């Protein structure tokens, strides 16, 4: 037997010690697994029907318990969520109208050029509101964020788009989601959270007659708060929010005749979109709402000038 | 007591300015202090009675990297203050991106007071890092006219949005009438927060470079208007915006017919508008106007700095209420 002089005796002792521990742990877990499998065989009721023969031998089992966050992840990221996003092109239509051969500074319009600018601008102006509402979905914070966003959207068209979608989301929450949540006690959504969103809804309805309403229901803070309440993580929420923006843009581009549905899916599935969204979330992760702002000034011009287009197929 | 030299404060870049209504009914200065690198000048003989004029300057006509200017402005009840500059505010190159040049302005305008701030644009040099925060707190019936604009840099030296970072933030708040104890009241409310963040640091290679994302624009500006004295000017911008020809509409008339129609237009305003629209078209100037919570926000951008200046000057002069309320000197930077 050769002795390695450079071997640290203490660490080798520790290694063998952990090895023993691990072996013990594995043995213990295997024993538990066998016991659990035996139990499962005694309760055939809990097996999936029609799959009983294979499921008993397969270690992979389907998720049997309902999972609220997972379920809402799918619901809130669905294009069929009736927010009316299809009515808004987020400045794309105006951008196309402003691009003209006679303009030496803006001769070509392309979706490939517009998309990254739009994601970056949207993240810079709006994402901090989503993140902040998710971190603190209380009524007071939601009202404050909603008011701050109302003050920072400096064009009529953008405000209209944000409020229309926010109110639609509030309506979906009130009429659909909140009424189909599992009963209190068995659910991740607490009574206080339900109460806060309800109170916010009342505030929106009450304030609509004032010159400066108490609450307008802008999309970003409300989206963050609802995602938080149903248990989505901060990262999931930010990703769904930005991806929703991309989906709406791509869909608007298809309807504006820029490309077809296959190209649309190719863009949506592409690495560029994934990386851009991830980078934008990273960039805005720590941005306070007071520091949010427009980083593509011409976007404000395109947005604002959507109103002077002769013909429009979108509301923004 | 009435020393011809303003008192100096001890903190670099600090300034304090108080405008009040003098017994004879014209606006004057109550307090007027500044410290290097900030410099304030008030012409010894007021040329006009409508408002008191202050030149906001810096030694050498620009801000060196790391300069921090912090100006506190108070406009007392019914007083009118005009602040202008002399030439572009240059922002010199920073040796390191960590060295930020800052200009902050905190303004309080008492009831029926008014401030007109129509300075020259900020001209950030290549490699500069600049942040500007301007916060305006308005009591009831106070008025503000604020122009904030930034250029692509020194075009003669090939600069084209070549700075490291430029951040401009403007906030308008309404506050209840002043309280003795100086406590902040819960009824303080943010009306508008306008923020522009121009950062050369791209977080992803797919994102356009800063200069490409500007789409050929060489100057971008924001005009914020609020209060009873700005009502007619605000309405004017909104009406002119609504009167813009529809983009993509087609005019099937012949050139001769168009000219005949233009000549037939009787009012001087319509003639002026027709000329302005030609100018907007030729200079590729884009603008928009919106009413945001009782404030009018005008955004504009143009490839050439001078075209931007001509345009905003033409709008303000045509409407005329700035000259009327503050005197012609208020418009000296936009002519």
Automatic annotation (TrEMBL), chain A:
Signal peptide: none annotated. Gene3D superfamilies: Urease accessory protein UreF (1.10.4190.10). Residues 1-21, 36-63 are annotated as: Disordered. It holds the Pfam family UreF. Transmembrane segments: none annotated. InterPro entries: UreF, UreF_sf. Belongs to the UreF family. This is Urease accessory protein UreF-like. It comes from Podospora bellae-mahoneyi. The lineage of its organism: Eukaryota, Fungi, Dikarya, Ascomycota, Pezizomycotina.
TrEMBL record, chain B:
Belongs to the UreD family. It comes from Podospora bellae-mahoneyi. This is Urease accessory protein UreD. It holds the Pfam family UreD. HAMAP family: UreD. The keyword Chaperone applies. It comes from the Eukaryota. Keywords: Chaperone.
């Amino acid at each position: 037997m050769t002795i390695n002089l450079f071997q640290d005796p203490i660490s080798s002792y520790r290694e063998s010690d952990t090895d023993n521990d691990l072996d013990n742990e594995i043995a213990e877990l295997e024993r538990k697994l066998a016991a659990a499998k035996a139990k499962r065989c005694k309760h055939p009721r809990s097996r999936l029907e029609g799959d009983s023969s294979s499921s008993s031998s397969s270690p992979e089992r389907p998720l049997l318990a309902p999972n609220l966050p997972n379920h809402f992840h799918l619901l809130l990221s669905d294009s069929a969520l009736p927010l009316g996003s299809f009515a808004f092109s987020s400045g794309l239509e105006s951008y196309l109208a402003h691009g003209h051969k006679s303009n030496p500074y803006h001769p070509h319009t392309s979706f490939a050029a517009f998309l990254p600018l739009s994601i970056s601008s949207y993240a810079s102006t709006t994402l901090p509101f989503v993140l902040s509402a998710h971190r603190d979905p209380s009524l007071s914070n939601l009202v404050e964020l909603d008011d701050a966003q109302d003050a920072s959207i400096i064009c009529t068209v953008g405000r209209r788009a944000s409020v229309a979608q926010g109110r639609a989301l509030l309506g979906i929450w009130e009429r659909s989601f909140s009424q189909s949540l599992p009963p209190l006690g068995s659910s991740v959504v607490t009574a206080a959270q339900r109460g806060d969103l309800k109170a916010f809804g009342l505030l929106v309805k009450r304030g609509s007659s004032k010159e400066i309403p108490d609450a307008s229901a802008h999309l970003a803070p409300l989206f963050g708060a609802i995602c938080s309440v149903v248990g989505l993580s901060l990262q999931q929420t930010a990703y769904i929010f930005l991806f929703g923006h991309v989906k709406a843009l791509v869909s608007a581009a298809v309807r504006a005749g820029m490309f077809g549905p296959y190209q649309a899916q190719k863009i949506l599935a592409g690495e560029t979109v994934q990386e851009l969204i991830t980078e934008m979330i990273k960039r805005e992760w720590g941005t306070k709402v007071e520091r949010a702002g427009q980083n593509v000034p011409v976007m404000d011009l395109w947005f604002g000038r959507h109103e002077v287009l002769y013909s429009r197929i979108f509301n923004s | 007591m009435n020393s011809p030299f303003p008192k100096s404060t001890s903190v670099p870049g600090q300034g304090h300015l108080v405008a009040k209504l003098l017994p004879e009914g014209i606006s004057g200065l109550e307090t007027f202090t500044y410290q290097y690198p900030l410099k304030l000048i008030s012409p010894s003989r007021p040329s006009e009675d409508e408002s008191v004029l202050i030149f906001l300057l810096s030694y050498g006509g620009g801000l060196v990297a790391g300069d921090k200017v912090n100006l506190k402005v108070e406009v007392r009840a019914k007083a009118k203050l005009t602040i202008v500059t002399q030439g572009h505010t240059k922002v010199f190159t920073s040796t390191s991106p960590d060295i930020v040049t800052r200009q902050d302005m905190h303004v309080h305008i008492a009831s029926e007071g008014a401030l007109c701030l129509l300075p020259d644009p900020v001209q950030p040099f290549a490699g500069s890092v600049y942040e500007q925060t301007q916060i305006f707190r308005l009591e009831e019936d106070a008025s503000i006219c604020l122009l904030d604009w930034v250029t692509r840099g020194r075009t003669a030296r090939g600069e084209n949005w070549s700075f490291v970072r430029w951040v401009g933030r403007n906030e308008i708040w309404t506050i209840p009438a002043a309280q003795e104890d100086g406590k902040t009241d819960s009824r303080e409310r943010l009306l508008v927060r306008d923020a522009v963040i121009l950062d050369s640091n791209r977080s992803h290679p797919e994102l356009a470079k800063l200069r490409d994302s500007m789409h050929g624009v060489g100057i971008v500006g924001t005009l914020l208007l609020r209060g009873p004295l700005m009502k007619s000017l605000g309405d004017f911008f909104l009406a002119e915006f609504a009167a813009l020809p529809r983009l993509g509409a087609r005019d099937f008339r012949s050139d001769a017919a168009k000219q005949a129609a233009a000549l037939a237009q009787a009012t001087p305003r319509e003639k002026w508008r027709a000329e302005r629209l030609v100018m907007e078209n030729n200079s590729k100037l884009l603008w928009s106007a919106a009413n945001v919570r009782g404030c009018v926000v005008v955004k504009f951008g143009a490839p050439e700095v001078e075209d931007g200046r001509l345009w905003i000057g033409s709008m303000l002069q045509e409407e005329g209420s700035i000259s009327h309320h503050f005197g012609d000197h208020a418009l000296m930077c936009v002519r």
